[in-house]
Design goal:
The complex is a heterodimer of chains A (about 375) and B (about 200).
Chain A (H helix, E strand, L loop, with lengths): L5 H11 L2 H13 L11 H9 L21 H20 L5 H10 L2 H10 L6 E5 L15 E4 L5 E11 L4 E9 L7 E7 L5 E5 L10 E11 L16 H33 L6 H24 L5 H24 L4 H4 L1 H15 L4 H13 L6
Parallel strand pairs in A: 1-4
Antiparallel strand pairs in A: 2-3, 3-7, 4-5, 6-7
Helix pairs in contact in A: 1-4, 2-4, 4-7, 4-8, 5-7, 7-8, 7-9, 7-11, 8-9, 9-11, 9-12
Chain B lengths: L1 H14 L1 H8 L5 H4 L4 E5 L9 E2 L2 H5 L2 E5 L9 H31 L1 E2 L2 E2 L4 H21 L5 H21 L12 H13 L7
Antiparallel strand pairs in B: 1-3, 2-3, 4-5
Helix pairs in contact in B: 1-2, 1-5, 2-5, 5-6, 5-7, 5-8, 6-7, 7-8
Classes of the chains: A alpha+beta (about 375), B mainly alpha (about 200).
């Protein structure tokens, strides 16, 4: 059992204060994810962006925000669950460092970090973390995108990516590509957009439209040698190693998204259909999910390379959230999804978590392997 | 009735969800029969000037939601029969997408092996196929409101299992898989499951 200390309770309460604001933004973003002007620089987006940015790279803004320090995965996750209770699509739509920031902080040198984080000042620049490819999903070892030497000390990038958040509107981010055949040749390149050879289109998704999933094509995108991350690290720690740690982190974030959305769904049904059977059960399941992801986050803080608990939490939390959505559909009554568009949106959004950062089948394989290695007892 | 059920399934499988819905609702006075304030209908069947709500995914399936004002009827024989026909339509829709999923999984390879040969995938295809047989048998007899609700909840789940077979393509609105999302939305307007939670 993870008991939140005073600092974590403060993080939770600050994010909890943002719930209603995020819910108010949810349907407009779902209807038109390109219409973001009304959301830029809102207090909640400023809070998320600054909290997501290391203190040394934060811009100074008025408002006196009490910011999450993100000293730990657990602190990040405690806040994330509450923001997801607000609306996860609104959270994803926020221009902020996001997943790319996790990796840049892990593997970027000071110059790369400064370039990345200062580009985000002003709150109008999205980031991307481009790993999945058409035909290969998140199977990084089969990645086809390649970096070819340009003869002048740099590289030209060729290939394609698919299902990349903010790919078609991000200003800066990371693209994974290989410089050779071995797994160790896979590297993350920092790319600023617009760029020669870069083209991108938004994908029209069923839900979670704030994530702005996109497909990207690279036809000779120039990448300077000093834009490859991890050059200052041993060869074994430059590419996939960081990606594995980042993905473990991301899997718990997706679990938190699922748990927060399940809570939002349950609260909505309880409010709009008094005495609906199953509310207490749905809440109890979501609370169990919350406790599971807190434990998984604490485990990841202790050992960032061990993914068993991250995968186990994603597999079970996403399934729990989907069951909660199904319960809501049966509970809200005939035509309830038409009468309650926010609930209907959440029943679509929650499906996205299945496909992000490894499907349930992929997590099953990770969990089974981890269990056989004794990770469940460690 | 069994012939009508077969027809509804076949039409949905061959021609799509909206065509199947049109067959299931044939001869029904929608605004009098629907259990909720809106009812899914084929867009082509909406009377001129009628109030409708639209949905971005349902629009692509040419289905809209017709306003049904006033007191709603209690569950009756007509609604129960529509529920069974709609189940047949949804079975046909799952078949349509399952066929497509199997074709996709047979082409896509991981490590030089078609995905359809991976045990977790094969298991899902087997489960869905078996559950479809059970669902068809379930719909073949008159059903109580509780059983009808149970049948449609199972069909929601079958639709989701097939959706997952497409991987992330299963979340793209331009993909034919959207019919499965819309199928669940259609059922939400025609099946009263409040008491079944």
């Amino acid at each position: 059992m993870i008991e939140l200390d005073e600092r974590l309770r403060a993080v939770r309460d600050d994010c909890r204060d943002a719930v209603e604001d995020m819910r108010a933004r949810a349907l407009p973003i779902d209807a038109d994810p390109d219409d973001m002007e009304q959301h830029f620089n809102s207090p909640v987006y400023t809070m998320i962006r600054l909290s997501n940015t290391p203190p040394e790279y934060r811009e100074s803004v008025a408002g006196g925000y009490r910011l999450m320090k993100a000293k730990s995965v657990l602190e990040d996750i405690v806040g994330m669950v509450e923001l997801a209770r607000g609306d996860m699509s609104t959270m994803f739509a926020c221009p902020c460092p996001a997943l790319a920031g996790v990796y840049v902080s892990l593997l970027g040198n000071p110059a790369q970090q400064e370039k990345f984080y200062t580009r985000l000042h002003g709150g109008r620049t999205w980031t991307f973390f481009a790993m999945s490819e058409p035909g290969h999903g998140s199977d990084a070892t089969n990645m086809q995108t390649r970096l070819e030497k340009d003869g002048n000390g740099g590289y030209l990038m060729y290939g394609a990516k698919r299902y990349i958040g903010h790919g078609a509107r991000g200003g800066i981010g990371l693209v994974f590509a290989r410089t050779g055949r071995s797994a160790l040749s896979i590297r993350a390149a920092m790319v600023e957009v617009p760029s020669e050879g870069w083209s991108a289109q938004r994908l029209n998704t069923v839900g979670l439209r704030g994530a702005y999933l996109s497909e990207l094509q690279f036809d000779g995108v120039p990448v300077a040698a000093d834009m490859l991350l991890g050059e200052h690290l041993p060869v074994t720690r430059r590419g996939i190693w960081g990606a594995v740690k980042t993905l473990n982190n991301m899997r718990i974030q997706i679990s938190a998204s699922a748990v927060g959305t399940a809570m939002a769904i349950t609260e909505y049904v309880a409010e709009h259909r008094k005495n609906a059977p199953g509310v207490d059960l749905a809440l109890a399941r979501a609370e169990a999910g919350k406790q599971l992801i807190f434990q998984a986050a604490a485990k990841l803080d202790a050992d960032p390379e061990r993914g068993y608990f991250a995968s186990a939490s994603k597999l079970s939390a996403v399934r729990m959230a989907q069951q909660t959505a199904q319960w809501a559909i049966t509970s809200i009554g005939p035509a309830g999804l038409i009468e309650h568009p926010l609930l209907e949106k959440w029943t679509r959004d929650v499906r996205a978590f299945e496909f992000m950062d490894g499907t349930s089948n992929i997590q099953r394989l990770h969990v089974a392997r981890g269990y056989q290695s004794g990770d469940a007892d460690g | 009735m069994s012939t009508v059920l077969e027809q509804c399934e076949r039409i949905a499988r061959d021609e799509g969800l909206a065509a199947g819905l049109a067959a299931a609702l044939s001869g029904t006075e929608v605004t009098a029969a629907a259990p909720g304030s809106y009812a899914a209908v084929p867009a082509s069947d909406v009377p001129e000037g009628a109030e409708v709500r639209t949905h971005s995914l349902a629009n692509r399936e040419e289905i809209v939601f017709l306003a049904c004002p006033g007191e709603r009827p209690a569950a009756d024989y007509t609604l129960a029969e529509i529920g069974r026909l709609l189940a047949a339509v949804r079975i046909g829709t799952v078949r349509r997408l399952l066929d497509e999923a199997v074709a996709y999984l047979s082409e896509r390879t991981v490590g030089d092996e078609p995905l359809i040969r991976k045990q977790l995938i094969t298991g899902t295809v087997g489960d869905v196929a078996a559950e479809l047989e059970m669902a068809r048998a379930y719909a073949s007899n008159p059903l109580s409101p509780e059983a009808l609700a149970d049948l449609h909840t199972k069909l929601d789940d079958l639709g989701w299992q097939v959706t997952q077979l497409f991987g992330a393509s299963g979340y793209i609105a331009d993909h034919p898989v959207r019919a499965l999302y819309v199928s669940a939305l259609v059922a939400n307007t025609w099946i009263d499951r409040k008491g079944a939670a």
